[in-house]
């Protein structure tokens, strides 16, 4: 199972790094592992994380049965 997280506008690199680290730690606490992240030209970031177990659906994600 994959999950993406958007990090809001942070024009300073140190602020962006801290925000990514906080989000990565929160994802780890939920059982996810950060696979990749990208910083956009608009000073936002997108984190891609994965969790091996599909036992617990991610918040806000609808699953078809």
Major β-sheet profile: 3 strands, antiparallel
| Major sheet: arrangement of strands | 1-3-2
Uncertain segments are 61-65
Which outline best applies?
A: elongated
N- and C-termini, Cα separation:
16 Å
Overall mean confidence score, pLDDT: 86
Strand content: 25-35%
Radius of gyration of CA atoms, rounded to a whole number: 13 Å
Q: What level of helicity do the residues show?
A: 25-40%
What letter string, H or E per element, gives the SSE order?
EHEE
Judged by helices, strands and strand pairing, the structural class is alpha+beta
Count up the domains.
1
User: If helices are DSSP runs of H or I spanning 4 or more residues, what is the number of helices?
Assistant: 1
Number of strands: 3
């Amino acid at each position: 199972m994959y999950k993406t997280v958007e990090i809001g506008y942070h024009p300073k690199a140190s602020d962006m790094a801290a925000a990514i680290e906080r989000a990565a730690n929160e994802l780890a606490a939920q059982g996810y592992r950060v696979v990749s992240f990208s910083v956009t030209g608009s000073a936002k970031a997108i984190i891609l994380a994965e969790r091996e177990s599909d036992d617990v659906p991610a918040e806000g994600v609808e699953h078809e049965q």
